[in-house]
Design a protein that fits this description.
By secondary structure, the chain is an all-alpha fold. The protein contains 16 helices and no strands. The protein starts with about 25 loop residues before the first helix and ends in a 13-residue tail after the last helix.
């Protein structure tokens, strides 16, 4: 979210695209410092709010559980639907500008959360957050993809580690800020995203980036849709996001208790961060077997959860083993997917390629998440089918996965 070799982007533009390729701003070290710093700040802000948002909406605002679930689910669905056009916008205006806009939107969205008092305001905030999220991910990773190849792998590893540090540190930071009320917490998160916007604006404007032209937007989308190799890869790799996201549903529904659930996700974050130096060293993240290994680890993790009995008396050793497997899976898959998109996207087209991959993965995740929820609602043997089915999906995806050739080895026209 793993190519065999690393190849530089071709300098020629795609046929029918009048715009020159966008080149990364500044030197690689400066870009990496900005992107990693932004990732750490906004991750702490994001998880500080999200860890306590449902409790606030339910108990402080008195919203129905069904209303909360629908609105928060809408944010995820809308963000996934917007990944493809957001990636095209990133390529058209440049990733630094897109990143600044993304952070500004997220700052506004979190600011809204602190003043809403009903479903209408929550819907508005969710929509703004979704648009910002859809822009941020292709923008940040486009900047990482544009740095020198010798720094790229380590830069992405630092980016992932920063995100995991934010995921672990965010909830306790949010708990501390809640002493001043949810308004203070949401304002602090908005401030973190605003700082991110300023940092992106400090980067020099990308050479080749220009105004937002409809022809350039549609040209980028049509180009990636014509790329049959990458379309095939996007469909076979789509379950990676489903496999990463569904542990948030499966583990709590195993009723292992709040303490054990918290420990599980902390171990996932640590394992995911710990594998990043290994992926970055020697270009390992670019090797084809890394993505398959990540999928297999995810499948084994779900089998471990399947074998674990439900309830507070569940085996802690099995739970921790599943956490390590899922952490390794996510770390391997994220590194491999980034390297694959970097290698396959033509110059100035990382955003739209990343957008297509994320869009397809989002559709699979939403569909799969609905099925998993229904299986757990049915209870009994049907509930056991959920982790078993996810494990089977992981194995099948690893078996059919075929990495596309680089842009230097194929004709995209």
């Amino acid at each position: 979210m793993a190519p065999s070799t690393s190849a530089p982007h071709p300098s020629r533009p795609l046929a029918g695209d009048p715009a020159p390729p966008v080149r990364p701003p500044g030197n690689g070290r400066h870009v990496l410092a900005v992107v990693v710093g932004v990732q750490l700040a906004i991750s702490i802000g994001f998880f500080a709010v999200m860890a306590h948002l449902v409790t606030y909406l339910r108990h402080d605002l008195g919203l129905l559980a069904g209303t909360i679930a629908v609105v928060l689910g809408l944010r995820v669905a809308l963000q996934n639907m917007l990944f493809l056009p957001a990636g095209a916008i990133t390529d058209a205006v440049g990733p630094a500008r897109a990143g600044a806009l993304a952070c500004a939107l997220r700052a506004a969205g979190f600011g809204l959360l602190g003043v809403i008092d009903g479903p209408a305001g929550l819907l508005c905030a969710a929509a703004v957050l979704a648009v910002g999220g859809a822009l941020f991910h292709p923008a940040a990773q486009s900047l990482l993809a544009g740095v020198q190849p010798e720094r790229r792998a380590k830069g992405f590893a630092s980016y992932v580690v920063a995100g995991q540090l934010g995921a672990v540190a965010g909830p306790p930071v949010g708990l501390a800020l809640l002493g001043g009320g949810f308004g203070l917490l949401s304002a602090a998160a908005a401030g973190a995203w605003a700082v991110g916007a300023v940092l992106f604006l400090l980067l020099p404007a990308e050479r080749g980036a220009g105004r937002l032209h409809v022809r350039r937007l549609t040209g980028g989308v049509s180009a990636v849709l014509r790329d049959r190799d990458f379309r095939r890869f996007a469909m076979t790799a789509a379950p990676t996001t489903l496999l990463a996201d569904q542990i948030v549903t499966v583990v709590p529904l195993k009723e292992v208790g709040a303490g054990s659930t918290t420990l599980f996700f902390c171990v996932v974050a640590v394992a995911m961060a710990a594998v990043q130096p290994w992926c970055a060293a020697g270009g390992r993240g670019e090797r084809p077997w890394v993505l398959r290994s990540g999928l297999i680890c995810a499948g084994l993790g779900y089998l471990a959860l399947l074998a674990m009995p439900s309830g507070e008396g569940g085996h802690l050793v099995i739970l921790l083993a599943a956490a390590v497997l899922h952490g390794l899976a996510q770390g391997l898959m994220q590194s491999a997917l980034f390297q694959t998109v970097t290698r396959c996207a033509p110059s100035g087209r990382f955003g739209v390629y990343f957008g297509l991959l994320s869009f397809v993965a989002g559709v699979v995740t939403l569909t799969g998440g609905f099925v998993v929820g229904r299986l757990f609602d049915a209870g009994g043997g049907a509930a056991a089918m959920a982790p078993a089915g996810l494990a089977l999906i992981a194995v099948l995806s690893a078996a059919v996965l075929r990495l596309p050739a680089s842009t230097t080895d194929r004709d995209l026209r």
